[in-house]
Amino acid sequence: MVAPPDNDVLWARSLHHSHNGSPALSGVSLGVREGEILAVSGARGSGKTTLLRCLSGQLVPKEGEVWFNSTAVHTMPPMQRERLRRDRFGWIDSDPVLVPELNTWENAALPMLLRGSSRRAAKAAAMEWLERLDIGMCARKRPHALLQSQRQRVAIARALVSTPSVLFADEPTAPLYAADRSQVLRTLTTAARSHRITVVLATLDDEVATLADRTVVLVDGRRVGALRPAEAEGQAACSLSV
Ligand SMILES: Nc1ncnc2c1ncn2[C@@H]1O[C@H](COP(=O)(O)OP(=O)(O)OP(=O)(O)O)[C@@H](O)[C@H]1O
C-alpha cells in the first residue's frame, strides 16, 4: 500500500466495485484536498453513489484503496469504519430519513446527542443551522408534519451540526423545488467554506458544479474528466479524457 499525498484529505486509487456482478466502478482514482468542494457528476447509473459510498467507508470496494488523511479506510474493521463515519464524516442523501419520534431540532441535533453533548449545547447548535436553512420556525414539529423539502433541510442541518471533516452529499437538492435549490446549495457551500469542511457532492444539477472548486465526471463507472467551475457551465457539451 502506498500512502496518499500529504495535501489530500481523501484519496482513492483504482477503485473497482460491482453490485451483484454488474460493474458500478471501474478503476476510479481521485484525491480531494482539505476544504475543497468537489462535485461528482455523471448520468444516472454512472457510479456516483457507489463512489461516495466507497469514499465514506459505507462500502468496501472490491479492489482499490481509500485513504482518509493517512489512515487506510478500505482495510478498517467494520466497527472502526462506523466510528470514523460517525465522528468525522457527514452524509446527506437525496431522500431524507429522519427519526419519526423526534422533533425537528432533536433530529438535527442527533449527532451531537449521540456523542454525549448536553441537550442545551446540542439544541443551540441545531437551532443555529435550522435558522440558516430557514426552517427554525419548524423546530418543534415532527417529520410527518413537514414537507419533503423541509425534511431535506433538517437532514442537511443534521449533517452539518457536528462540523464534520468531510461532508458527502448524494444529490442533496433532488427533493427541493427549483426556487429552494439555489438557497440551500449556497448555504451548504458557504457553510462548508467558512468551517473548512471538505465536501464531495454527487449531482446531476449544473448549478452545483458551478459552485464547486472542481468537478470530476463519471461515465459508466469510469472517470473521464475534471472540470473547473467556468468549464462546468458548459459541461454537457464536454468530453474530456484523463
Ligand atoms: N444495490 C444495487 N444492486 C444492484 N445494482 C446496483 C445497486 N446499486 C447500484 N447499482 C447499479 O450500479 C450502477 C451504478 O449505480 P450508482 O447508483 O452508483 O450510480 P449513480 O450515478 O449514483 O446513479 P443515480 O444518479 O441514478 O443515483 C448502476 O448500473 C446501478 O444500476
Automatic annotation (TrEMBL):
Query: GO molecular function of the protein, one example?
Result: ATP binding
Q: Which InterPro entries match?
A: AAA+_ATPase (IPR003593), ABC_transporter-like_ATP-bd (IPR003439), ABC_transpr_LolD-like (IPR015854), P-loop_NTPase (IPR027417)
Q: Which UniProt keywords apply?
A: ATP-binding, Nucleotide-binding
Q: Which PROSITE patterns match?
A: ABC_TRANSPORTER_2
| Residues in ABC transporter domain copies | 10-242
Concerning its family, UniProt says: Belongs to the ABC transporter superfamily.
Q: PANTHER family, alphabetically?
A: IMPORT ATP-BINDING PROTEIN, LIPOPROTEIN-RELEASING SYSTEM ATP-BINDING PROTEIN LOLD
How is this protein named in the record? ABC transporter ATP-binding protein
Q: Which organism is it from?
A: Streptomyces camponoticapitis
